[in-house]
Write a structure and sequence with these properties.
about 260 residues, alpha/beta, Rossmann fold, four-stranded antiparallel β-sheet, 10 helices
């Protein structure tokens, strides 16, 4: 069974310039796939196309089947039926992803109320459970985004994304804006929650060490095209494309430098 089937996906600007070219991959329930590449490689465009959230002036071509629903060219009303249930997303910068004028608890309550139909005490209990799952104290429910730390904001964003227990979680560079220590904590949390809930994961990033730590398969993107794909361990051990080799070599050099700096 295939949960996500991307076939010949391209993303074009109004002048017909292709930003993403002929991308194909599949994702089964519970599977973890990483999209890796440098800035401008098409990683985030892929995520937005899968969600049906491309910005104005960009159009998707090809096929994106998510839980049997064709995303490319679908009306927002049809896509709203699968967002939350079939797929949710965590983005790079929670301060911009969260509503600055709404308390955290209310923001988490929104998708729960909409998808699970809870009200009153049951809804409040579900919000507190969602906060507890991401190791946030109850007081965060009454806080505004600017009143909590970056790591806490990202945990809140994760709680929102997972509250409806979607089949697929898209994590688009979810730790890039965090410092190294907090980044590791959030990655461990995300890894455990996805595994515990049996979700599929599409993890997007530019840091090979981060992406390989949470994925089973990789698609390597460069300049809008996939240059290599396969099992994570195979690509790391024996990269075939020159660009992939450069990513692997850089990761090993960085690891060696950290070892030299260690006391």
């Amino acid at each position: 069974m295939t949960l996500l089937d991307v076939d010949g996906l391209s993303v074009r600007r109004a002048d017909d310039h292709e930003l993403l070219r002929d991308l194909s991959f599949t994702l089964a329930p519970g599977e973890r796939l990483g999209l890796i590449g440098e800035s401008g490689s098409g990683k985030s465009l892929t995520a937005l196309a899968v969600l049906g959230l491309l910005p104005a002036g960009l159009t998707a071509h090809g096929s994106v089947l998510l839980s049997g629903t064709q995303v490319v060219g679908a009306a927002d009303r049809r896509l709203d039926r699968i967002r939350g249930r079939a797929v949710s997303a965590v983005f790079q910068e929670p301060l911009t992803a969260l509503d600055p004028l709404m308390r955290i608890g209310r923001q988490i309550a929104g998708p729960i109320r909409r998808r699970r139909g809870l009200r009153g005490a049951a809804l409040r209990a579900a919000v507190l459970t969602a906060l507890d799952e991401v190791r946030l104290p109850e007081r965060v429910a009454s806080a505004y985004p600017h009143e909590i730390s970056g790591g806490q904001r990202q945990r809140a964003a994760i709680a929102m994304a997972l509250a409806c227990e979607p089949d697929l979680l898209i994590a688009d560079e979810p730790t890039t804006a965090l410092d190294v220590t907090v980044q590791a904590e959030v990655l461990r949390l995300l890894d455990g929650l996805v595994a515990g809930k049996g979700m599929a994961l599409l993890f997007i990033g530019h840091d090979l060490a981060v992406v390989t730590g949470v994925t089973d398969r990789l698609v390597v993107l460069k300049d809008g095209s996939a240059v290599e794909s396969g099992r994570t361990e195979d690509i790391v051990r024996e990269p075939r494309h020159a660009y992939t080799r450069s990513l692997v070599d850089s990761a090993w050099e960085f690891e060696a430098e950290l070892d030299r700096m260690a006391p």
